[in-house]
Write a structure and sequence with these properties.
The complex is a heterodimer of chains A (180) and B (207). Chain A is mainly α and 180 residues long. Chain A is built from seven helices and no strands. Chain A has a domain at 11-59. Chain B is built from eleven helices and no strands. The chains are: A mainly alpha (180), B mainly alpha (207).
């Protein structure tokens, strides 16, 4: 294949050559190296894409201000995020530990199954006693006044009087009793 | 001060690519002066790179500032001096991605609409200082057609095309900036060129 050949590279082959000539089959590479027409066509395509780039550059604005570097040195900038990360990690660990301690049994002895069950039983019993003392819903509990033992005793005394305070004459049916 | 003058003032040869290595070494050691020279060399390129992708001058300026701050803070971690340029572009690509991610998030929670992050007037603000109305119209038309043309590309095809033909990076630099193999970059670039060649929006460039 030479420059006089009727065969020339297709547009896709020319585009492939624009990207990388070595990607073409060896025969086409040889043709491209000697065929003026194909080289011109490839050059035109390259120029076209380059012109797009040049036009974009011409139509892009210029930056108004030049960037400035921060006052910290790169070395300082390295440990600051690390320190912040370490502090954050320490805070998270402290929060998790605090949450665990506040919900765990109060004993400082090592927790085994037995002690944990005991602690659970105690908690359960405490819950039962609380429910026993506050059986009614809170709204009803507010309506009930605190029981006054003295008042209750007077009330019972009124309903069911004690026999100790009764006069003897009331026991007239008892044999040997004296009438008033 | 021009880029060449900046390099000459620092005693470097008048070649941006070969002259930056000593500057990068000094910047890695913590030299603010060397890093300022690197900013002088690259800030226009990085600003344009960001502008091509977000089309807002104000946001581009802010992002460019962020990119160089991030680069300054992390330059000690740069392993290969020769890869400084692609490393800088990688930071820029990630920052642009973050910008769009935040914009999507804001639009998702209803603070802004999808297009509200970009001021419509700011898209074409590059022509504000140009008194020629015809030039401004051409400029507007170019960016409009360019935006339409890029819509037919996938995200990676678009990124590779922009890096190759607008940011003028080589295939090797693109592969380093995107963490992709050179073969993958070439494949994406080829697909992008095939699609753009057929695209009606750019036909006036091809004819």
């Amino acid at each position: 294949m030479n420059s006089d050949s009727a065969y020339h590279l297709s547009e896709k082959q020319l585009l492939l050559a624009v990207v990388d000539e070595t990607r073409l089959p060896l025969l086409l590479q040889q043709h491209l190296s000697v065929c003026r027409r194909c080289r011109e066509e490839k050059g035109k395509i390259e120029q076209t894409f380059s012109r797009i780039g040049e036009t974009a550059k011409r139509f892009a604005p210029f930056p108004v201000k030049q960037p400035t570097v921060p006052s910290v040195t790169p070395q300082k900038a390295v440990w600051r995020p690390a320190l912040a990360m370490a502090l954050t990690t320490a805070l998270v660990i402290a929060a998790v530990w605090w949450a665990f301690v506040s919900t765990s049994p109060p004993e400082s002895v090592p927790i085994n199954n037995y002690t944990f069950e005991m602690w659970e039983d105690e908690q359960f019993m405490a819950e039962i006693s609380f429910l026993t003392e506050n059986a009614l819903p809170s709204e009803y509990m507010e309506m009930i006044t605190e029981p006054d033992l003295d008042t209750q005793d007077d009330f019972l005394q009124y309903i069911v009087p004690s026999t100790d305070t009764q006069p003897v004459s009331h026991d007239w049916k008892i044999k040997g009793g004296t009438l008033c | 001060m021009t880029k060449a003058a900046l390099l000459e003032s620092y005693g470097q040869p008048d070649d941006k690519e070969s002259g930056i290595s000593p500057l990068v070494i000094k910047a890695k050691e913590g030299s603010r002066g060397a890093f300022n020279l690197l900013i002088g060399l690259f800030h226009e390129d990085i600003f344009r790179m960001v502008y091509y992708r977000i089309r807002s001058r104000m946001d581009s300026e802010d992002l460019t500032q962020d990119i160089f701050i991030q680069a300054f803070k992390n330059i000690a971690q740069l392993k290969t001096i020769a890869h400084f340029k692609s490393w800088l572009y990688r930071i820029a690509i990630n920052r642009v991605r973050d910008f769009y991610r935040k914009k999507r998030l804001r639009s998702l929670i209803g603070l802004f609409s999808e297009n509200e992050g970009i001021d419509v007037n700011d898209i074409y603000d590059s022509g504000k200082n140009n008194p020629d109305p015809l030039e401004n119209e051409i400029r507007k038309d170019f960016w409009h057609q360019f935006e339409i043309a890029l819509e037919c590309l996938s995200r990676m095809e678009k990124e590779v095309f922009l890096l190759r033909f607008l940011d003028q990076l080589g295939i090797k630099e693109i592969s380093q900036a995107l963490f992709k193999s050179e073969s993958t970059v070439k494949t994406h670039l080829y697909r992008a060129l095939v699609k753009l060649r057929k695209n009606a929006a750019l036909q006036n460039f091809f004819n």
